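Sample intake sheet
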Amino acid sequence: MPVHLSAPVPSDLHPVAGVRIGVAEAGVRKAHRKDLTVFLLDEGATVGGVFTQNRFCAAPVQVCREFLALHQGQGIRAMVVNTGNANAGTGQDGLQRARATCDALAAQLGVNPAQVLPFSTGVIMEPLPVDRIAAGLPAAIADAQADHWARAAEGIMTTDTVAKAFSTQV
């Protein structure tokens, strides 16, 4: 059944104080596609997570759980999201690659790698191309703005035909 969605209108998406978002083309799976998104968080931000309860979860989920528990939701300074490769079903190598992605962004920002949360979506059972992600980080950081929520919706698309986002003020 087709669903008729329209792309989000950037001016309808409200910024969140202390959050800047940048998007870049890293070539994770395909060239010339927005596939790398960074969320840069001001010092003092509080972060929480809701994760699958499945015992068999992807490397980024395991690393996020570890880093959030370490900081108890405090001190997280960034999130890095790639699309095109889920880094799932990749075992210890996947864990190392998820951590290497955190290392790369942390080095760019001058923070501890455990202050960066990794997220991946896309094809499973393939090694995460950390080198491409690391190469795309400077462009994503340079693109970071408080009002880039619509760009973030594009940057995390996998097989979607239209970006999806919703925002309201309370």
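Comment: The two ends are 33 Å apart (CA to CA). The chain has a mean pLDDT of 93.
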